[in-house]
Structures are given as C-alpha cells and as structure tokens.
Q: What sequence folds into this?
C-alpha cells in the first residue's frame, strides 16, 4: 500500500532549500527600502561649485565646513566624526540627480544637502523618495520644493525661506512704505521670477490691494527703461523686485537715468555684491532675508564669522559673504543635522527623519523649536516670523533697524 | 526720446561688433565665432588691470592690446589650419569651442559675478525732460563714428589697409603681387579683436564687466552683420544702430519679454526679402 504521507526530504534537498530560502531572504533584503539600512555619518551635498553659479556653492561651503569643524571639535556625533562629501552639479538638475544617487547609494550618507537652484531641488523629489534619503535645502526657496503637488513630501526638509511665505512679507513691507498705495512688481523671466507672480498677486489680494503695474525682463538685460517708464506712468512709487544682483544693478541704473526713484523692496536674490556693482545707487534698497553678517552682530555670530575667516582666508570680512542669508541658513542646517542624529541615537535614515520632528536648536538665524513638524507645510524650519528686512546703507547690507529706512516713508 | 537715446548706445555696441565681423570676413572669408568673448575681454581685462593699480586709460589700452593679440592667436591656431579648403567649415567648430573655453576660464579665474568699472562718466546722467542718458553711453556712438571713418581711412590711405582690401578682393591675385595674405589675415583678426575689446571697454562701466557679458552681444552683432551684408562696412554700422533703436522701441511699445523674438523675426523676414543682406551685393563668379 502506498503511503499517503509525503516522503521525507532527503538531507541534500533540504540543504538546498535552506540555502534558497536564505538567498530569497537576502534578495528581499536588497529589495527593501534603502532607509532600512544603517547609513554613514556624512552629509552628502550637491552644490553649484563650478560654472556661472560657482559662488553660491562656495558661500554654502564656507559655513557648512566651519560648522562641521566645530561639531567634530566638540566630540563629533554619536562618537564618530561628521564628514562632508560635496559634489558639483553646475546648477543642472540632471547632475543633481546623479549626485543624489551617488550620495544615497554609494556614499550611503545619512542626509543630503541642497544648493542654490530650485529646479535642481524639484528634480530630486522622486530619487529621494526611492532611496529614502533625507534632503535638507538651505537656499532654493521655491514653494514646491517642500509643498509637493501630491501632498506627500516625506524626505525633503528646508532651512531657508519659502516663496509662498516671502510674498506676503514683501507685500506688507511695500504697503507700509508706499505713500500712494501704487505698488508694482518687477520680476526676472526665469522659473523663480515667474513663479513669484501668483504668490505676490495672491498676497496683494489678501491685503486688499491690486498691483498697479507688472513688468518683467530677460536675464542679462542691460537697460530696463521701458519697464520703468510704464511703471512711472502708472504712478507706482514702490516696486517689489524678484531679481538678482546683476540685473538689479541695471534696474537702479535705469532708474537713475530716468530720475525715477521708487522704493525697492526686493526678494533675497539681491545680495552683498549689489552694493559693489551699484555703488551709491544701492542706498535705501530693502531686501528680505533671514540674516546678515554686516552691522551689529551677536557675540556668537561674530565668532562664527571669525572662524569662517580663519578657515577660508579669501573671506576678508562680511563683504565676502555674498549670500548672507544662505550662508547662515547652511550653518544652522548643519547643526540641526548633527543634533538630529544625536536625538535619533543611531545613524539610520528613517530614525533621522522621525527625529527631525522632535529636534530643537537655537541657531544664529532663529530658535528652531521644534525645527520641523510632521505636516508638509512645516518641513520648512524658518517660519515667516523669523524673516527680516535688511537694507543697503553706506555700501553695507544691514538689518533695517540699523539704518534710516526702518520707518515707513509715510 | 529715451528709447532713441538708449537704442543709440546699445546699437553702437552691436554695430562695433558687426564691424569686427566685417573686418574678419573681408580678410579670411571666415569669422571668429568667439568674438563675443573678445568683446568680454575688453571689459574684464580693464577691470583686472585697474584693480592691479593701472590708471583707467592705460588699463583700457592694455586690454585692447591683449584682445588684439588674442584675436591674432585665434586666427593662427583655430581658424587658419581649418580654413585651407575651398568650402571649409571646421573653423566654425574650433572658434565656438575656444569661445566656450575662454568664457569658462574667465569664470574660474575672474569669478562668475559682474564687477563695476568706475569712470567719471557714469556718475551723473544727463537728463532731458523725463529721459536721461549717461555721458559714457554717448561716447559709444561717437566712438563708432570715429572707428568707422578711421577704418575707412585705413583701408583707403595706408599700404597695409590697401593690402587688406586686395586680399579681401582676391586672395590669390594678392599673393601673386607679393602680398603675404596669411600675415594680412592675421592682422585683420588682431584689428577686429581690438575693435571688439574697445566696445567692451566702453560699455563695461554701464553694465558691469562679467564673464558672460559677451554671449548675447556677440550673437546679435553677428546677426546684424548678416542682415546688413557682412561685406559692407557702412551697412553693418547703419543696421547695428537701427537694430538697437528698434529693440528699444519694441520694448517700449510692444513687449519686453518678446523683444528678441520679435526682433529676430523682423530680421529673418528682411533676410528672406534681401538674401544678400540689406546692403549686400550678389557675388558673381565667372566660370
């Protein structure tokens, strides 16, 4: 009679099955999200280190390396030295994605730090999700970097300004300074400039105002007389500007030609270099930002500046920190990363991400308490309350309360 | 009024660049596509030399001399070896490549940001009614007129100039009467380099000197030369100035954002109607 019981496995077959099972488990392990793996105590960075935006990467590097030196001098993180692995993306999104892959898969860093351009950051959304790699922005202010259209931003965080929050801040500053309520918008013809139009329009509407004029220009334009003549004819006395140093210089030069001197309230594309290129024409231009290294500094900020100068001799003083807010944001972001790693208790990306919602840190820009919250909108660490108005005065970009422009013109 | 004033200034820059293309084309039937970067050298080198302590005019003169040398080197190394055959176009690639290298090198060494070039002529604008212009910008059309007449005089009244015209007219025949056509071509590129750098030197105080200042200007100067008829000096000067004023009119009365699109469209239409350029003549060859 044939037994109904299955015959026992021969020993050899059982061994093969066991090996297959182990291999299968290993394969499952490999296919699991990378965030489940432990990571290295390194900050991977994709910055603009060469090309026309090379100065932006350098400005971030100054403060990040200085902060890392300070952290390591104080014992490092979880008994290990924190390292920086920086790659150049030349401001190109495709290179930024390649760099993210290197950082996430080869270097296996705990976190990636972003650079200047918003398009680069936006291009990273999917790769970061796939790898489970936390990302920390320090400049790129595009709203959609953090507020993803699908509402499911899990890995991208930022210690910087956010365009959607900047617009009402600028509108309020412009409203307070306009004598006749005629406010105009001038923006560069880039994704950043054009993206600001709905933000500013909505902020104006919320303030019960309408734009009296709206003008744009192309990058590298040398003369903005046509735009300014139209704004002058519209009786605009205050301009909200979304532009960078070079074109902002050409704008104030065009204003000087025409003898037309509206108050400029600018987004933070205008930096310290503007004072050098525009000379006396920079006087009184107001800029939104998070920090300035010029004027009266706290003792702590003064110390940071001195250490940056000691480490990078080419930084002769605050005048060489061309993107003051970005440099300060990057300094704070580096410390937030280190504190978060300590809070997580292990070098693990998912634990790190969870700890970001609990970390508190008193930075040079603001007090981060907590730095982030578990909702997409609050993956931005610097809240609008910490935004500051800065102004050019005597060739320096200083806090507006240290200038004669603190009081509205009315 | 404002559009005419600033248009004259901008148009003079385009015209000087186009004039440089004319000089090169006349001698070699080839041009230096990195010419926008030679224009950039005029501004950037002046700033560098001023920062080194040289007086402005000496620095400007030094920048022009270096740009002229650069023009000659580009001809000798990047144009001549690639322009030996009848319909050779290798020089296009080599000059574009050297332009990219030149701009990248400048960005690395000089930095990506613009730097100011101070002159007394940008401190206070001259205001006429609601319009205004810096004296520095008025120097540009004056310089253009001087360069145009000086070039005309050079071509007509000097032995070297006549030799250049002879090479332009018939390179082989010029060689048969003892003119060293290669040397003349080298000098033509050097002369064009100096003209381009002069434009860069004069406009830099108004727009800042930066490594990328020549990209768009070089392109527009070449377009002006083609539309005018690259072999006609007066033509390129007139079209350059007219294009500058037209640009400002488009900005003022049509659209700022679409300025280049509209301007280029008008130029393409003009080229369709006048394939040899507005001032060009059909070249007839006996076969």
A:
């Amino acid at each position: 009679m044939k037994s109904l019981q299955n015959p026992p496995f021969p020993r050899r077959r059982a061994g093969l099955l066991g090996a297959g099972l182990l291999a299968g488990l290993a394969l499952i392990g490999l296919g699991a999200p990378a965030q489940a793996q432990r990571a290295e105590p390194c900050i991977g960075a994709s910055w603009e280190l060469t090309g026309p935006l090379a100065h932006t990467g350098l400005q971030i590097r100054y403060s990040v390396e200085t902060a890392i030196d300070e952290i390591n001098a104080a014992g490092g993180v979880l008994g290990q030295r924190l390292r920086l692995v920086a790659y150049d993306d030349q401001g190109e999104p495709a290179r930024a994605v390649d760099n993210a892959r290197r950082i996430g898969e080869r270097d296996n860093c705990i976190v990636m730090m972003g650079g200047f351009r918003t398009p680069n950051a936006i291009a990273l959304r999917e790769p970061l999700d796939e790898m489970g790699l936390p990302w920390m922005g320090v400049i790129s202010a595009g709203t959609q970097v953090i507020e993803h259209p699908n509402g499911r931003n899990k890995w991208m965080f930022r210690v910087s300004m956010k365009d959607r929050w900047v617009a009402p801040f600028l509108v309020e500053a412009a409203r307070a300074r306009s004598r006749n309520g005629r406010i105009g918008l001038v923006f560069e013809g880039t994704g950043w400039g054009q993206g600001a139009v709905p933000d500013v329009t909505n902020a104006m509407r919320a303030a019960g105002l309408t734009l009296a004029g709206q003008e744009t220009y192309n990058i590298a334009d040398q003369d903005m007389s046509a735009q300014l003549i139209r704004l002058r004819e519209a009786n605009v006395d205050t301009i909200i500007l979304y532009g960078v140093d070079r074109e902002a210089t050409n704008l104030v030069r065009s204003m000087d030609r025409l003898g037309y001197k509206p108050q400029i309230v600018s987004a933070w594309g205008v930096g310290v270099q503007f004072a050098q290129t525009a000379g006396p024409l920079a006087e009184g231009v107001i800029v939104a930002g998070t920090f300035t290294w010029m004027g009266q500094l706290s003792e702590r900020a003064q110390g940071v500046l001195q250490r940056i100068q000691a480490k990078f001799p080419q930084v002769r003083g605050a005048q060489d920190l061309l993107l003051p807010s970005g440099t300060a944001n990057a300094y704070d972001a580096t410390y937030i990363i280190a504190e978060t790693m300590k809070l997580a208790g292990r070098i693990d990306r998912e634990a790190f991400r969870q700890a970001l919602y609990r970390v508190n840190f008193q930075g040079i820009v603001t007090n981060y308490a907590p730095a982030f919250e578990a909702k997409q909108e609050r993956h931005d660490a610097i809240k609008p309350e910490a935004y500051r108005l800065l102004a050019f005065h005597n060739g320096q970009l200083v806090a507006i309360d240290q200038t004669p422009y603190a009081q509205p013109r009315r | 009024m404002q559009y005419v004033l600033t248009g004259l200034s901008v148009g003079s820059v385009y015209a000087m660049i186009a004039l440089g293309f004319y000089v090169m084309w006349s001698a070699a039937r080839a041009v230096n596509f990195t010419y926008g970067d030679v224009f950039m050298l005029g501004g950037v080198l002046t700033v560098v030399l001023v920062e080194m302590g040289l007086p402005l005019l000496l620095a400007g003169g030094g920048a022009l001399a270096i740009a002229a040398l650069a023009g000659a080197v580009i001809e000798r190394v990047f144009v001549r070896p690639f322009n030996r055959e009848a319909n050779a176009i290798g020089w296009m690639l080599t000059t574009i490549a050297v332009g990219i290298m030149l701009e990248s090198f400048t960005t690395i060494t000089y930095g990506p940001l613009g730097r100011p070039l101070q002159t007394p002529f940008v401190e206070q604008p001259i205001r006429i009614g609601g319009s205004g212009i810096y004296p520095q910008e008025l120097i540009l059309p004056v310089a253009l007129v001087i360069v145009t007449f000086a070039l005309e005089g050079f071509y007509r009244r000097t032995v070297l100039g006549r030799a250049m015209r002879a090479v332009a007219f018939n390179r082989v025949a010029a060689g048969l009467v003892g003119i060293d056509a290669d040397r003349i071509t080298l000098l033509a590129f050097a002369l064009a380099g100096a003209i381009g750098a002069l434009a860069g030197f004069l406009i830099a105080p108004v727009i800042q000197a930066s490594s990328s200042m020549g990209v768009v200007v070089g392109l527009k100067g070449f377009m002006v030369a083609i539309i005018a008829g690259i072999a006609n000096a007066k033509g390129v000067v007139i079209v350059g100035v007219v294009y500058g004023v037209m640009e400002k009119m488009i900005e003022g009365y049509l659209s700022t954002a679409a300025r280049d699109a509209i301007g280029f469209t008008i130029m393409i239409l003009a080229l369709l109607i006048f394939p040899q350029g507005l001032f060009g003549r059909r070249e007839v060859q006996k076969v």
Remarks:
- The beta strands of chain B are 126-128, 131-133.
